[in-house]
């Protein structure tokens, strides 16, 4: 066989893979008979991500909602997403049917960092989460407990105000200072003293936020995320 023909056929393999993936996804949707909301057309592998190109994805979603309605269906890679863009649609998801949509989807990064959502902030809705909620209410959020920690919160709030006041006419990164206040007040209340390694902790928090953004490939490719996750957590 001529080498040119061989390389030509080899170059068609990615297109064949994309086509088969698209057919598989379409067949799966038809087989399950899902009554999905309307949404923009999709491409194999990336789904609807090409509709969100630009630096402001939320505005792209707004423009799509004007065309497809207050409730629309997209796919971020292989992850199905339903977008509610009006108060009435959001009420249906967040209040009327809140139990159905209570569990949040964890990205690959979040699964690794939170140990598959073992803490209350990322725990899936089920038997484990109500137990965590009960412990928090009884041990951390009861009226007596909140009142006992008021002096520590006031002390950290005073530090925050003094930090802002000492800046004078210089610009102040208020978001950073508020993050520090929350971290200091939380650790002060739990441990009874200020956390000396707070700057190191905040550094890793910012690294976590950077690694677990909304459009990472591990978050939009379920097959890839599962395979890579099994290796990282082994």
Structural class: mainly alpha
Q: Name the helix and strand elements from N-terminus to C-terminus, one letter apiece.
A: HHHEEHHHHHHHHH
Q: Please, what is the average pLDDT?
A: 79
Query: For the report, how would you describe the main beta sheet?
Result: 2 strands, antiparallel
Radius of gyration: 24 Å
Number of helices: 12
Helix content: 55-70%
Q: Which runs of at least 5 residues are low in confidence (pLDDT < 50)?
A: 223-234
Number of strands: 2
Shape: elongated
The fraction of residues assigned to DSSP E strands is 5-15%
Q: Tell me the strand order in the biggest sheet.
A: 1-2
Quickly count the domains.
2
Distance between the termini: 45 Å
Oligomer: single chain
Keywords: Iron, Membrane, Metal-binding, Transmembrane, Transmembrane helix
Transmembrane segments: 6-27
Pfam family, one: p450
GO molecular function: heme binding; iron ion binding; monooxygenase activity; oxidoreductase activity, acting on paired donors, with incorporation or reduction of molecular oxygen
């Amino acid at each position: 066989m001529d080498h040119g023909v061989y390389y030509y056929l080899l170059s068609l393999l990615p297109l064949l893979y994309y086509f088969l993936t698209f057919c598989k996804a379409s067949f799966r949707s038809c087989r399950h008979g899902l009554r999905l909301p309307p949404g923009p057309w999709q491409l194999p592998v990336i789904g609807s991500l090409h509709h969100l190109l630009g630096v402001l994805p939320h505005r792209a979603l707004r423009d799509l909602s004007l065309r497809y309605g207050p409730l629309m269906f997209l796919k971020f890679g292989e992850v199905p997403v339903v977008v509610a863009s009006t108060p009435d649609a959001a009420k249906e998801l967040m209040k009327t049917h809140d139990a159905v949509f209570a569990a949040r989807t964890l990205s690959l990064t979040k699964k690794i960092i939170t140990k598959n959502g073992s803490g209350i902030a990322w725990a899936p809705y089920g038997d484990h989460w109500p137990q965590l909620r009960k412990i928090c209410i009884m041990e951390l959020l009861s009226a007596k407990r909140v009142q006992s920690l008021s002096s520590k919160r006031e002390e950290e709030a005073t530090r925050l105000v003094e930090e802002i006041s000492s800046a004078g006419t210089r610009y102040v990164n208020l978001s950073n200072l508020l993050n520090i206040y929350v971290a200091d007040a939380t650790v002060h209340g739990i441990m009874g003293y200020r956390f000396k390694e707070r700057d190191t902790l905040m550094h890793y928090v910012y690294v976590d936020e950077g690694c677990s953004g909304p459009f990472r490939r591990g978050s939009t490719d379920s097959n890839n995320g599962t395979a890579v996750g099994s290796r990282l957590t082994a």
